[in-house]
Write a structure and sequence with these properties.
Length: about 525
């Protein structure tokens, strides 16, 4: 399947933003593109009503455009048991064409790792080092490594020394030694008499019953293998359990699959390891190297209902923007290559999305039609906003007619259940639909909420004004504004704070009495922002 394209609206998403993301992702999937809607903030009360009404799941929350390790191509982890022989681990390296093997316990928990370099180093180690390793190597490991069979299992403690038949053999200390011999039974008996622990016999030779009986009486282990003497010596050192040479997990640098690629890269630059294990929920899920980070593909995004950097997902510079579908003024987002940019002068992004269905000859299913209609109603304030166009009205009516949706009933139910301030925290009122702007070098932020009865603001006006002042002390906007707008489009009541307050006071202050509001002033995009921009000039 094609790489996932994430479709998202703006931060502090409203119904138009969420519903446009869902509807456009559905269209893209119908066109055989792998699209997924995401959101950049909490689903507000109105949007949740819409989604519940048409049995649609809310998009998954995403906070950064950076790619996580779990989202890029990594090598699958090749694992071996901590009791496996070095030979087994070496074979795994060859079989999987990897230089790193992750070592797990019998319970499957990762306990360390080893590399081909570690394995090769054993062959070049000082005799005393390998001697100590062979002392703790189980007999069964020897048998596995030699691909041999046990003629008798003895019980003599091994010294770890490996000896062969040479001119000085009888003058050597053979107590506990691992002997590598051919078919000379006389030499076998002499070695047993000098206290050897193991005799590995080459080329499948099986000693006489007399020699085997002596081994039984003296507690010597006899192993017969097809290998010749030189091969046996080589394979004995590969019988060491990997746990004896592995790098323990406490000494390793590992990563979580949820970590961002860029952050992982910074850590890698300070280290010299070839591969690093990646975990999710304490389970190893991959092996990552520098070349994975150099070759990974950035996430792909389509932005709907916004085109300003301050409103989009964090770290968007680490992603690819493929399209923008919007109905606001042209903002400041930059792309590295030409993209599809659809910007229409309509009241709702969902109106544009519905048009794209028609243009691609894709039928809109009922649940998508339902959320599109509700979003259009919401963003045009039941078709009363000055941003509302005939295309918004026509689109909503066509969808309503096709699926027998009661638009007046939908809008009344939606606004009555969601357009109020009862039980809401001041932070929810301000930040649920909150946008930041840069105008003539000034930092401006505007929150907006829709309510039925503007008079209810009187009860909280003084407290909310104090809240705005305290919030602006934290964030230092030149202007922080709150617009309480009537859902039927009658107008808005404004509260604001910041050094630009005196500049806009005459135009935005309710001057007649506490119940007053500025009639017809409800659109942030078409009325509020242009008016502020005009006053600043």
């Amino acid at each position: 399947m094609n790489k996932t394209v994430y479709i998202t609206g703006h931060k502090n998403p409203d119904s138009d933003s969420i519903c446009a993301s869902i509807a456009y992702a559905h269209l893209k999937n119908e066109l055989n593109q792998n699209a997924k809607p995401v959101r950049l903030g909490k689903v507000n009360k109105e949007t949740q009503f819409i989604l519940d009404k048409f049995d649609v799941l809310a998009p998954e929350l995403m906070t950064s455009a950076k790619a996580g390790l779990k989202e890029i191509d990594m090598d699958p982890p090749v694992t071996a048991c901590e009791y496996d022989t070095l030979r087994r681990v070496w074979d795994l390296c060859i079989e999987h064409k990897t230089k790193t093997i992750y070592i797990v316990s019998n319970e499957g928990k990762m306990v360390g790792l080893t590399t081909m370099s570690d394995l090769s180093r054993i062959q070049m180690q000082d005799l005393n080092i390998t001697k100590d390793l062979l002392k703790d190597t189980p007999i069964d490991n020897l048998v596995l490594s030699l691909k041999g069979s046990i003629l008798h299992r003895g019980n003599i403690t091994r010294s770890g020394f490996v000896r062969i038949n040479d001119n000085q053999l009888m003058s050597r200390d053979l107590v506990g030694a691992i002997m590598v011999l051919s078919d000379n039974e006389d030499t076998m008996i002499k070695c047993m008499s000098k206290g050897c622990a193991v005799i590995a016999i080459s080329e499948n030779y099986v000693p006489s019953s007399f020699t085997i009986k002596m081994a039984q009486e003296m507690g010597v282990t006899l192993i017969s293998t097809n290998y010749n003497v030189m091969k046996i010596i080589q394979m004995i050192y590969r019988s060491i359990p990997v746990r004896l040479i592995m790098q323990p997990v406490s000494n390793m640098i590992s990563f979580n699959g949820n970590e961002y690629v860029e952050d992982v890269g910074k850590v890698m630059l300070k280290t010299r390891y070839r591969n690093y294990p990646v975990f999710l929920n304490e389970e190893i899920v991959g092996s990552v190297a520098r070349y994975h980070l150099l070759s990974y593909s950035k996430k792909n995004f389509i932005l709907v209902d916004h085109n300003e950097k301050s409103q989009t997902i964090d770290d968007i510079e680490y992603a690819n923007i493929l399209e923008i579908i919007d109905h606001h003024r042209i903002g400041d987002i930059e792309t590295s290559q030409p993209i599809i940019f659809r910007n229409s002068k309509v009241g709702s992004t969902c109106t544009i999305i519905a048009s794209l269905y028609r243009e691609n000859f894709i039928d809109i299913p009922k649940h998508i039609a339902g959320i599109l209609c509700c979003a259009i109603i919401s963003d045009t304030m039941n078709f009363n906003s000055p941003t509302c166009t005939s295309l918004d009205i026509e689109t909503a009516n066509q969808l309503a007619k096709k699926y027998e949706l009661d638009l007046p009933g939908l809008s009344e139910e939606m606004f009555r259940k969601t357009a109020n301030i009862t039980g809401k925290e001041f932070s929810e009122l301000l930040y649920t639909d909150f946008k930041e702007y840069e105008l003539d070098g000034y930092s401006i932020a505007i929150g907006q909420t829709n309510i039925f009865d503007l008079k209810c603001i009187n009860k909280i006006q003084n407290e909310f004004q104090s809240y705005l002042v305290s919030e602006n002390e934290r964030f230092k906007y030149d202007l922080l504004m709150m617009a309480f707008s009537n859902v039927e489009g009658k107008g808005s009541k404004f509260l604001f704070s910041g050094k630009l307050a005196s500049t806009i006071d005459i135009e935005f202050r309710n001057t007649s009495n506490s119940d007053d509001y500025i009639a017809g002033f409800i659109s942030r995009k078409k009325q509020i922002i242009p008016k502020i921009a005009s006053l600043l000039k």
